[in-house]
Write a structure and sequence with these properties.
The protein is mostly helical. Helices cover 82% and strands 0% of the residues.
Length: 297
């Protein structure tokens, strides 16, 4: 109950603000989302990696991210085989259950729960997760018809990648940044988190729940909110990492479905109703599951 009030309630209130704002004003989500993605988030990435001390921790983050996604996809395919789901249902289940909302949900929760150091870890995980969503996620959204060339291009054109490379080069060559320039970058970067939280609320307001198939929805939600953190716990127990990073990884693995996957499913007409319902319901139910997990950890 304490975690619900201290950590999750403030986060959900911001989501609710975006949700109500979208319902009342019908705002242009694409423009606001683009502002966050192309203008604010790169500043946050640059600031985070310019000041971060890069060590083996970040290699472990890469191992964790790839292993978690691989094991989740294998688990979902196994469940789909047992349940005799068709190809479209399996791809939709992967979109909604293998990819979690590490950005506009996970990072704020980690910041509220564990502070700035853990938040730095969550940003690194968010970047890797974004790359995986923009490649493997798009592949499953397009039912395997998305070319390797298009996947690579989608990653290379992402502004967060440019900001990441620039920050690493700036740090490696120990290039100075005037205080007023750094403060400007920091100010824009700090504004990214509340904006992307509002965007999630707005995205949820646009989701339409129709023809809910409860059996496959339950499978997807259970995978996203229960199986995923259990797998993450197993991975973290094998990696040589500290308790703070381990907690961050497990909590992020327990996040609800990534809202951007709904857009992918709609764009490629890959069972968007199923992806939408799992995303919406997992976000609501995560209020309970995350409260319990945060209390346990």
């Amino acid at each position: 109950m304490i975690m619900l009030i201290k950590v999750l309630l403030p986060v959900f209130l911001i989501f609710l603000t975006g949700y109500i704002g979208q319902k009342v004003f019908s705002l242009d989500i694409k423009s606001i989302s683009t502002t966050s993605l192309y203008l604010m988030t790169p500043a946050l990435i640059f600031k985070s990696f310019y000041t971060a001390k890069l060590d083996s921790t970040y290699l472990n983050i890469v191992i964790y991210s790839v292993l978690l996604l691989t094991l989740l996809i294998l688990f979902i395919k196994f469940v789909a085989y047992l349940k005799n789901y068709n190809s479209s249902q399996t791809s939709a289940l992967i979109l909604s259950s293998a990819f979690m909302n590490n950005g506009n949900f996970g990072a704020p929760v980690i910041l509220f729960a564990y502070g700035q150091v853990a938040f730095q870890y969550s940003i690194a995980i968010m970047i890797l997760h974004t790359i995986l969503m923009s490649t493997i996620g798009l592949y499953f959204a397009a039912k395997g018809n998305f070319s390797v060339k298009e996947s690579i291009y989608s990653v290379l054109k992402m502004p967060i990648m440019h900001a990441l490379v620039l920050a690493l080069l700036w740090q490696y060559f120990k290039l100075p940044i005037p205080d007023n320039i750094y403060n400007a970058i920091s100010m824009v970067g700090d504004a990214a988190i509340p904006l992307i939280m509002l965007v999630l609320g707005m995205q949820l307001a646009e989701i339409k729940l129709i023809n809910i198939k409860w059996d496959i929805n339950i499978a997807g939600i259970a995978t996203r909110l229960l199986i995923s953190p259990a797998i993450a716990y197993g991975i973290t127990s094998l990696l040589p990492i500290g308790p703070l990073l381990a907690k961050t990884m497990i909590i992020l693995a327990a996040m609800p479905s990534a809202a951007i996957m709904v857009m992918y499913a709609i764009q490629y007409d890959n069972n968007p109703e199923l992806v939408s319902s799992i995303t919406f319901l997992s976000t609501l139910l995560s209020l309970i599951t995350l409260s319990i997990l945060l209390t346990i950890l």
